[in-house]
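PT: before anyone asks, these are the final sequences, not the draft ones from last week. 538 residues across everything. Please model them as a single complex and drop the result in this thread when it's through.
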Amino acid sequence: MARQRYHDGLALHQALPGRFLPFLVGAMTFLAALALAGGIAAHALSQRWTHGAGAVTTVQVPNPDDPAAANAGGASPAATRIHAVQDILATTPAITAAHRLTDAELRALLAPWIEQTGDGSLPLPAVIEVHIAPTRNPDNALLARLQASAPGTMVEHDSVWSDRLAALAGSLQACALLAVLIVMTVAVCVVMAATRAGLQTRRQAIALIHSLGATDGYISGRFSSRVGLLALGGGLCGGVLALPMLLAMSHLAAPFTATTDTLPTMGMEWRNPRMLLDLLPHALLWMLLALPPAAGLTGWITTQLTVRAWLRRLP
Amino acid sequence: MFRLHDVSYAYGGSRTAQAALSHISLDVPQGEFRWLLGPSGAGKSSLLSILALEAQASAGMVEILGVPVMQARRGALARLRRRIGAVYQDFRLLPDLNVFDNVALPLRLQHRAEAEISHEVHAIMKWVGLETRLDALPPQLSGGEQQRVAIARAVIYRPALLVADEPTNALDDRQAARLLAMFHRLAELGTTIVVATHNDSIVRKYPAPAIELAHGHLVRDYR
Ligand SMILES: Nc1ncnc2c1ncn2[C@@H]1O[C@H](COP(=O)(O)OP(=O)(O)OP(=O)(O)O)[C@@H](O)[C@H]1O
Ligand SMILES: [Mg+2]
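LR: through. Structure below.
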């Protein structure tokens, strides 16, 4: 069988040399991996800064120790306003964490203003830091409920920055997608050009085996399996070469994208591959795994179409 | 077996170009031998290329081995080509394959077993007297040797239709006689054979029905 394939006159090793194409496809895969990593990193950052650990909503409760307003919808068992507010926050599903700032934290936060007025006994509101689950926004009903228990309560969401960050992240993701599309288009063009050149150099042999009864499917299959394999090899090389770079970048980005506030230990375990891979976002890991087969498949399909279109010139 | 009805052919498919063939009608039954005669430029090669499915007639009806060619799909034409053998005027050997692989090519495309291929190639190459040159590349052979390789490649898969364009022009008399004897034997076994030539002496030596062309027109169809 091997002899049959390699002696059918197509001489694909000459028609489609094994260096040029894998090199170019490898370079394209490398670029695509970087673009995808950029897009995914932008997505992760925007998630964190708009919804995650970076986005804090503050709830201010004036006169926290006054009795809770009596007209609160359900008979609230809590005695003070701050307790009533904390009860409501604790039972709101969208809220993942609520932390009342201690007196010391509050005074540290307000130090510049307190020193100016020089009045240490100024009545301070209670401030609660609230973390809201990603993709869920606290609605106005929550504010109304809070104000019913504790009149004057304010909810402040730092949305100017997070909106801007979300817009920035969105455009970064669009750029990454565009880059991937351009890289794919260039890869398709490269494969087409290489295939056409290969067809051109073997046109006599192709015309002959066509006249001996070789089908279009046979000829295009021979070309596309070679191109597909070369592209797969190039894609594997490109992906493997991109991996260390992406790992280094993920390591640098870890403090900003971490979903918890605990910083990763700086003494990285570079020798533990599992830990290394855990550094990469899972989406990126999957895309990295998918890139080489995608490169091979793109090469295969492009070659099939190119060869079949070219063969139409034969009767 | 093939039938042509009112077939015309112009190179490049252009209607303004002078037709290489005009209004040819022919009917050759299975297992018949025909000479194809005519002066240079008469259209012999053009007619053979239509019979070998190398060219598509511009007009008319072509039926080869029972397949209506003008309506057939590409896959059906590919299968039909595997039943047609052709010896081209310019041989069309692949210069980078050795003699063995050139002759084995049609069998390899039919996915025959390698042992069978080897047996068949050795037998046919012995018959054409080139069994010692199996490893040579075509450019290393003389014109007559290349022609014999081309003939071997055309007959090795026992085609049902064999078209040969000047297959004796590079052969000496003895080899030409052997070749024609083989063609007659193949015809007896059921292969339809058309041989183009403008060598009158060989036609006189081997009388057979003839198709004669001039300026793309059919002038005589002897039976
Ligand atoms: N590729 C081509 N493009 C355009 N015209 C062609 C082509 N091949 C042949 N012709 C023309 O078609 C006509 C028939 O040519 P063909 O080759 O069929 O003649 P022939 O009978 O085989 O001649 P010869 O005996 O010299 O081989 C000629 O006028 C020739 O000039
Ligand atoms: Mg001719």
